[in-house]
Write a structure and sequence with these properties.
By secondary structure, the chain is α/β, with parallel strands linked by helices. It has a single domain, classed as Histidine-containing Protein, Chain: A. Helices cover 45% and strands 26% of the residues. It contains six helices and nine strands. Strands 3, 4, 5 and 6 form a four-stranded mixed beta sheet that branches. Strands 7-8-9 form a three-stranded mixed beta sheet. The longest helix is centred in the first third of the chain and has 24 residues, at 3-26. The N and C termini lie far apart (59 Å).
């Protein structure tokens, strides 16, 4: 492997970790100590409400467990990705009947408001294909981080057989910009937008709501 290729892979890995760390760190309440008094400042970049974030985590866990319990690993290889209570299913199912059954299972999970079933009815991809999908996801994330006119944390990205799925609450401009970036990423064959489009005013309101609460400087 050439030095330039190695450096590129390191950069993608670093960017991917940075996005993950940013989402994990900045979506929580961070305790601060000011003037001897402990206060809590909400520092968040995720455009979902805190309730939606918790629901999404619960949905992914519950849906995955229910599919495994009712379908089993032998008849489906799947990934459950939830964003603002909209669930994207990717992977493969052994038949159309299994695919339909999985949709019904996930639709019955608490708080799910929509299911987008992108399961293919085909054999599971090879290790090489899965590795390529992981690399593609890293490349797209790195490109979004590099884009100065986008907030990378606003997007959740999944790749399956070269198809990139974009999820998030974004404006039309952000959606078009991210789609263009993904389409021009190496090895991407198709881009599917599973996006919730919001207005620029709605985005401004979200930004205002996410500002840290005022701190009382207790002496």
């Amino acid at each position: 492997m050439s030095p330039s290729t190695t450096a590129s892979l390191h950069r993608i890995a670093a960017a991917t970790l940075a996005v993950a760390a940013l989402g994990a760190t900045l979506s929580a309440c961070a305790p601060l100590v000011v003037g001897g008094a402990a206060v809590t400042a909400l520092v968040a970049v995720d455009r979902r409400t805190s309730g939606a974030q918790l629901d999404d985590q619960a949905i992914e866990l519950r849906a995955s467990n229910r599919i495994k319990d009712e379908i089993g690993d032998a008849r489906a290889r799947f990934a459950v990705t939830s964003y603002n209570r909209r669930v994207l299913l990717t992977g493969e199912a052994a038949s159309e009947a299994i695919k339909t059954q999985i949709t019904q299972i996930v639709s019955g999970v608490d708080n799910v408001r929509e299911v987008i079933n992108e399961l293919g009815v085909t054999n599971s991809p090879s290790f090489k294909e899965r590795a390529t999908d992981t690399l593609i996801t890293g490349r797209v994330k790195a490109s979004l981080v590099d884009a100065k006119d986008l907030s990378a944390s606003a997007f959740k990205i999944t790749t399956e057989r070269g198809t990139v799925y974009l999820m998030g609450r974004v404006t039309q401009r952000e959606a078009d910009r991210a789609t263009d970036i993904a389409r021009n990423t190496q090895s991407v064959s198709r881009v599917v937008r599973v996006l919730e489009i919001i207005t620029e005013q709605e985005l401004a309101n979200i930004g205002a709501q996410k500002q840290p609460a005022p701190v009382n400087d207790a002496k």
